[in-house]
Amino acid sequence: MEAFTTCGNGGRIVFPEDQNYWIATFLHPTFNNVVIDWQGQWTFSDDLDYWRNNSYPIAFQNHAAGFIISGDIISINGYGTGGINGNGDVWYTVEAGYTLPGRPMPFVFWNVSQVAVQSFFVKEPQLWSINIMNGTNMVFDDIYVNATATQAPYGKNWVQNTDGFDTMDARNIQLTNFIYQGGDDCIAIKPRSYQIMVRNATCRGGNGMAIGSLGQYLEDSSVEDVSVSDVKIVRYNEDMGNGAYIKTWVGVPTLQTGSGNGVYESGGVPRGGGTGAVRNILFENFEIMGANNAAAISQSSGSNGNGSLGGTSLLEAPGDVKYTSDLIQAPFQND
Predict the structure, then answer these.
(1) Cis bond upstream, residue 213 (ω within 30)
(2) To 5 degrees, how large is the angle CA 84–CA 85–CA 86?
């Protein structure tokens, strides 16, 4: 934190290529007009008890963050050698496919504007890899994310909740030249995301390109003006859910019970009933190999298996949603 404090306002911070920094405490620097040459690697500690009890709580889905960046005019360059290792394989092995509360997100942007990140990696993320929460005018290029559970039996997904790139309360975000390998959403465009552009992305394993989930909370969950183009969807570890999909919650607040990841994410209380609209969405030039579905629209999140709640979503029916693909080896689905 000394470098952040000393050089975080109008300065330059350098993490040399041959250095590996052991991150053992929660960090939340605020920058103004800073350049970060991030050629070295950060590695989060494997002290699971510390992170479960000391990460910053995120109200959305009861998650947590281990490292948060705030501020304006921030430039980060990993030069192809720098990035963050979340030590997530420790978490994957201990939890074996069942996410428990307290996993920290390793790279969160909170209340930021005018941000550029390039040639950067996030490996072994504990939870969502790169997460924007209230960000405007941000550009990401040449980003690599890999969540691989080395101890998982073949065909078992122990890397659930390791989204590659998420946006929420975000406007004017560009992501180009992105590669993801994992077991959840490659990219998830979450509530109140506007003017989002993704181009040239590869997704290996997981759920594909997602709009949502939307409507989990009693608030506006709109998503508008999204373009996702030039995408390769590749089945990996017997896992590839969709090419692209839109997922919304039921329109009636419903008690979240039972077991599984969704219970802690919803706090065991009624969820659903959010409002908003999904407008002007373009999925273009997808090459899909081995996905369960090429494209899908789901309106049943949070139903707890109650079929009568299907189709009750209060999100306006998707308008101006276009999907094109050069190669499809999967069906289409709409529930």
Answers:
(1) yes
(2) 105
Alpha helices in the chain (DSSP H): 2-7, 48-54, 88-95, 261-266
Q: Is the pLDDT of residue 326 over 70?
A: no
How many helices (H) and strands (E) the chain has is answered by: 4, 23
Q: For residues 41 and 82, is the Cβ–Cβ distance under 8 A?
A: yes
- Average pLDDT (298-321) is 86
CA-to-CA distance for 144 and 140, rounded, in angstroms?
Answer: 11
3-state secondary structure of 182: coil
Confidence of residue 84 (pLDDT cuts 50, 70, 90): very high
pLDDT at 145 over 70: yes
> What is the rounded distance in angstroms from the CA atom of residue 177 to the CA atom of residue 144?
9
Question: Is residue 37 annotated as part of the catalytic site, yes or no?
Answer: no
Q: Measure the CA–CA gap between 55 and 257, rounded to whole angstroms.
A: 25
Is there a contact between 121 and 84 (Cβ–Cβ < 8 Å)?
A: yes
Q: Are 74 and 31 in contact (CB under 8 A)?
A: yes
| 3-state secondary structure (DSSP) of residue 50 | helix
Q: Around Cβ 173, how many Cβ atoms within 10 Å?
A: 24
Query: How many C-beta neighbours within 10 Å does residue 150 have?
Result: 9
Specify the pTM: 0.96
- Given 163, 166, 184, 185, the catalytic residue: 184
Distance CA(248)–CA(273), nearest Å, equals 10
What b/e sequence results for 185-221 when a residue is b if at least 16 CB atoms lie within 10 Å of its CB, and e otherwise?
A: bbbbbbbbbbbbbbbbbbbbbbbbbbbbbbbbbeeeb
> Which two tokens mark 171?
């406007």
E-assigned strand segments in 7-60: 12-15, 20-23, 30-38, 41-44, 56-58
- Tokens representing 72 are 């304006």
Give the max Cα distance, the chain. 58
Q: Identify whether the C-beta of residue 199 lies closer than 8 Å to the C-beta of residue 229.
A: yes
